[in-house]
Structure formats: C-alpha cells, structure tokens
C-alpha cells in the first residue's frame, strides 16, 4: 500500500504510541485505516494471520490522496469480501507506531455490516500470510487476540495496536447490553431504545 495519504480533518492527538521515536532516524511516513465492523449479531470482524500467528482488525495502508472513508470500504472488501456502512462517530481511536524506519499512523473507525456475500480479494503478500477472516463475539475476539503469541516483531506490533483499538471501540459494550436487556425485560419495543440512540450507538449494535 502507498505510504502517503490525505489526513482526516480536525484529528485529535494519537491515542496510543507504540515503541519510541528515535531522534536521529529519518522515518518513512505511512497512513493506515482500521475498522471495527459489527454484524447484526453484534460480532466483530477479525482476520487471522496463520503464518505468524496473530489476529488483526481489517484494514491497511491508504493510497495517495485517498480519503479514509474510501480506504476503509476498500480494505474491508479486500480482506473480508464485505460491504459496510461507517458509523457517524468518525475516527474513534488512533495509534502512532515506530518500527525500524517506519512511522505509521493508524486511524480506527466503527462500521456495520451491510452484505458479506462477497469473496475476499487478497494480495499476494496476504495470501502468503495465510489470512483468514471470521466473525467473533467481542469478548471472544479480545481473548483470541490476547492469547495469540506472534512469531514476528510485526505480529507483536499488530497485536498491541489492534487490541487497543478494539478495546477503544467496544469500551461501552457491557453497559449498553445491560440497557438493552433491561428494555427487553420490561417488555418494551426495540424502538423505545432506538429513538434515543445517538450517532455512535444503535439498537442492535450498541458499541
């Protein structure tokens, strides 16, 4: 993927810095997007890299002058074969990574699955990485990411990064499922809750 892209406007400071910036290194800049995508069951999309034994979120580098929204849709289609709708909350978390001579900014977005009937279109490198996608419950995805022991430095970076991003995207999941269960337990209609949702939360995917 390309290393330069149009940055999103009014973006906050990085939420997490991974590794340390070295003062005398001339870093190559790379911009990337990640997506926490939910299906109708509240499961999240994850990608497993069998060769290096790690789990990741769908996403990758942005092309030159490519808008983040376009990049997120493209990456989700390439890695999962899925069509998604981005949530209106915008970028929910950022990481800044320093790996050798690379400085990578990753911008994370939340989305809802629209159609998963398509097939992935993996690159040659992704095929060699033995990527395979699946849908997991949020807690299951976190456990799988945390338990995996990557065999490469890159895999260890990805593990730390994507665990942070997934946590940031789902930090309110327990609270909102409790509200949903209360609403259902009271015999109320789903619309009772959906009328009060904001741009970040919806009835079936309250994350």
TrEMBL record:
Record has Transferase as a keyword: no
InterPro entries: NUDIX_hydrolase-like_dom_sf, NUDIX_hydrolase_CS, NUDIX_hydrolase_dom
Record bears the keyword Cell division: no
GO MF term list: hydrolase activity
This protein's UniProt keywords: Hydrolase
PROSITE patterns hit by this protein: NUDIX, NUDIX_BOX
Domain Nudix hydrolase: 28-159
Protein name: Nudix hydrolase domain-containing protein
Source organism per UniProt: Lasiosphaeria ovina
